[in-house]
Amino acid sequence: MREAENELLTRVGRGTPAGELLRRYWHPVSISGDLTEEKPIKRVTLLGEKLVVFRMPHRAGEKETRYGLVAEQCRHRLASLYYGRVEDDGIRCPYHGWKYDLQGNCLETPPEPPDWAYKNEIRQPAYPVKKLCGLLFAYLGPQPAPLLPRWDCLVREDGKRWVTVESMLDCNWLQPMENSVDPSHLYWLHGATATHGRELGQYNERHEFTRFEYGIYKRRITPGKKPGDPQQIDEHPLIFPTILRHVSVADRGQLNNRFRHNMQIRVPVDDTHTQVYRVNFVPSNTDRTPEDQDPPYEYSPLKDENGEFRMNTVSGQDAMAWVTQGAITDRTQEHLGHGDRGIVMFRRLLQEQIEIVRQGGDPIGVIRDPAKNGIINIDVVNEVIGLRRPPLANADMRAEAS
User: Fold this and answer.
1) What mean pLDDT do residues 312-330 have?
2) Higher confidence at residue 223 or residue 242?
3) Distance (Å, rounded) from C-alpha 386 to C-alpha 232?
4) Residue 338, helix vs strand vs coil
5) pLDDT band at residue 39, thresholds of 50, 70 and 90?
6) What is the DSSP string of 236-297?
7) Per-residue confidence (pLDDT) for residue 203, from 0 to 100
8) Residue-wise burial string across 107-140, b where 16 or more C-beta atoms lie within 10 A, e elsewhere
């Protein structure tokens, strides 16, 4: 890859090609439970923009809490709104009392004359916020905003749901996402490395990648251990541009031996930092999680007390691989092989969608039709643990990367 191509795909700031593409999607910026009546304001960064997210005071008769998201620096003298005051109709700067509503309109400028018309021309950068699954999602792109996707793990009610927030990753967003279409690392990073050198040797498995409405299906097909044994299929979709849809065996006490579905949302904080939110869901005949109920959440460290990655966990293993590639991987120095076909396919998809946005179109997976946004079920397969569905037709299984 040439340096200019690497810059094209990795930089997330406003006006950059990838940054403008990423601004066409909703991204989580915070757990809603982190904003309380006592401390309703939180600093956040998204796509390189320094912001504050805040919770509005509850109004009598309101069913839903209102949230706001604005640039951290006040348009007056650039003091931080993180130290400001949230009022019934907006957020007020602590320095000179200028106040802005949820749309960024300047409502009051106390030191100025009451009829000072200039305030009507001042606008604080502000963005819409929606709550779903206990997460606060923000949209930083042009209006009209698309619908916030109602992915199955986020809204299904027939089971138990919880959210895991991992430590901040000191690396660019593209590194975790390329891992989503890299099936080859499973046996090494999560196998030989995790078991301290158990020799695996050459393994005979096939990898297939196919485009679908929301991204790329990654399919791993493994021969049986003995002659005559059936092959095993493992399939984890990449939901463009920043989500991996995954399924495994649940491992939380009484949930053992049941499927744990999850969505791993890799949020581009800035060029060199990524925040991962993992929404976990275990279907159940008895447990229920109402859609309007905020699920429990936990913060999960990726490093131990000595600052070393926790290599006894899958998340720690992945984080080690992503972060040690560098803050932004220098892809001019890499050497790709047959096992990297999915990565090539993803990069081509990124370039294609960047060009669509440049021409004024909606990229893949943007939803504007409410009829398509009831519950968006994403098929996953893991025959190793017994989760199956009929195989795809041959025409649908062909790889689109060579």
Assistant:
1) 96
2) 242
3) 10
4) helix
5) very high
6) EEEETTTEEEEEEE--SGGGTTSEEEEEEEEEEEETTEEEEEEEEEEE-SS----TTSPPPE
7) 63
8) ebbeeeeeeeeebeeeebbbbbbebbbbbbbbbb
pTM of this structure? 0.92
| Residue 109: domain span | 27-139
Coil, strand or helix at 81: helix
- Report the pLDDT value the prediction gives residue 248, as an integer from 0 to 100: 80
- Of 233, 235, 219, 229, residue with least CA distance to 398: 219
Query: Is there a single domain that holds both residue 120 and residue 257?
Result: no
The token pair that represents 368 in the structure block: 């504007």
CB 30 within 8 A of CB 64: no
Structure-token pair, residue 11: 């930089």
Given a contact cutoff of 8 angstroms between Cβ atoms, the answer to whether 367 and 30 are in contact is: no
- Asked if residue 119 and residue 47 are part of one domain, the reply reads yes
Res 195 pLDDT > 80: no
In angstroms, rounded to a whole number, what is the distance separating the alpha carbons of residues 153 and 375? 9
How far is the C-alpha of 249 from the C-alpha of 38, rounded, in Å? 39
- Residue 262 identity: N
Contact present, 219 and 209 (Cβ < 8 Å):
yes
Spatial separation of the C-alpha atoms in residues 280 and 289, rounded to whole Å: 12
**Do the beta carbons of residue 87 and residue 41 sit within 8 Å?**
no
What distances in angstroms separate CA 43 from CA 82, 146, 248, 310, one per listed residue? Answer: 6, 25, 34, 27
- Shared domain check, 64 and 130: yes
Burial label for 9, CB within 10 Å (0-12, 13-18, 19+), is buried
Residues 6+ apart with CB under 8 A from 290: 157
Q: Is 294 exposed, middle or buried (0-12, 13-18, 19+ CB in 10 A)?
A: middle
Do 84 and 179 have their domain in common?
A: no
Which helix (H) or strand (E) segment is 360 a member of?
none
**pLDDT exceeds 60 at position 385:** no
Q: What is the CATH number of the domain that holds 299?
A: 3.90.380
Residue 237 burial (CB count, 10 A): 23
More confident site: 98 or 59: 98
Please report whether residue 232 resides in a domain: yes
205 pLDDT band, cuts 50/70/90, is confident
Q: What is the predicted pLDDT for the residue at 257?
A: 52
SS3 163: strand
| Integer CA distances (angstroms), 376 to 23, 29, 173, 200, 248, in order | 21, 22, 24, 38, 20
